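Good morning C.,

I know you're traveling, so I'll keep this short. The sequence:
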Amino acid sequence: MTQGKKGRFLWLLPLAAIIAFAAIACGGAPEESAAPAPAAQAPAPAAQAPAPAAPAPAATAMPAQEAPAPTSGEGATLTVVLDNVGSPLYRNEKATWPDNMMNYYYGFQELLVTWEPNTAGDGGKGKVSDETCEAPMLALSWEYDLPPNFDDPDNQGTVTVSLREGVDFYVADGRHSEFTAEDAAWSFNDAGSNNPAATHSNAGEAGDWFKLWEATDKYTLKGHFRNYIADWLNGGGAGISSMCGDAIGVVSKALYDEIGDDILTTPHGTGPFYVQEWRPNELIEATSRVDHWNNNPNFAFLKLRQASEAAQRTALLQTGQADISMVSIQDVADLQSEGFKFHDGLNQILGQFIYMAGNYWSYKDPQTGDPVELREGFYPDDSHPWIGDPRIECADADRSNPNGALGSGCDAIGFDYNDTDKFSYETEHMMKAKAFREALIYAIDRDLIGETIVSGYGGAIYGTGHGGGIAFHQTHPEYKDKWAAHFDPEIARQKLAESGVEPGFEFEYYCPAGNGTSIEVCQAVVGMWEQHLGLKPFIDNTAYSSRRPTMVGR
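The tokens, ready to paste straight into the viewer:
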């Protein structure tokens, strides 16, 4: 990857300040199968700068008057208009966010576990935790066989999962095969547990946590931990197989054995809908099942249509060409005045967070003590002022880095933060990088964005976030006021001066398309950085699914 002015990348989603709204039901359709839920947080990629987090979801509106619910589902079609329908990705080795999530949020695939029904009122909507995100779906129960301690890296224990019987995979022509433990084992192994070539969004979790999945009988699955983790199912919204976030969908090993790599673009799954046609980034047409193990939809057909422009999505709703539409938040008030119902079933604290990727400070394997080579993307140089260098012996490195070398040409490795003679979080370079990151934060008026871009439906979040974009909000009982970084242009300029970065510095700001109000928020953030700091960021809105292959394995 080239360096220099056009090689300075800021992987950053702009605002920890958005509350999400989405439609998930219409008429008498079952909540889990009628329409999509919002996408979850993208894992931080191995990039040179901050990585994208959860998109700013758009609102979803639907007519206030309810059409009579069909008694059999025969003939009725539910039409949903979205900003992005994605592309079919059914080989877990290559399934990446957000397209992989569309498979199960649209009701085509299923996972091991799902959300508990919400019984906590507004306070419980969309909450991501072990208590709410591990309701049985394809898994019925699981039990552990763990060692007395985890000192032995070769004995981290196992988990045995009892799977649901009588579940079928469907393809476009109808029933294909029965779901068994062989399918689940292959799904997770292919996603990264036993496949180092995997580029799945959760390949890191799959490979770091598990070394192998196997079927011990037709409906029993066993996972062998590489590194034991209690929250392996949900993983804070980015685990192995929970509906609460970015996860690994269950696909058919039997279908793969039959058609090989063509499975990548062959929609199939155990969900309540099966796909008849999927035209990438255009249209999905699906049929409702009448024999689903959980619940059958109350309509016969599902049509998911992509309309990239918010005005078009609103118009399709107003003209009756859509039953549900992911409209712009700015249109909600007007649509409500026209009699449309704003479905706030996922009204929750769902943030957008700034991920300052590229700060790769692991230089020694914590288990073996072996040196860890510098990670691709670790460029603590003048072109990437948000990346700090904690290596004391690299204090005199040439930060102009004319050759674009990893670590600014300093290759010191083999130590960690315990080696205080070699590693410090307070090196001069670390402090300057921290000051630059703080300058960006203090220059963002999150309250103003909440009032304008998201029309009062959002607000500032000063705590951190985790998988799924769920925020550690300031209303949390363990929140601390010292974490707040309120908008303050004067402090922002002071921090910029401390960083040594001059006004006029140019860098790329990645804001993926097809994520609701993200582009508008990104444009607002860019304007604030220009106005208050004199910086010159420029936006790249390439779809994340297209950009991700350039970020994996670096």
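Safe travels,
E.
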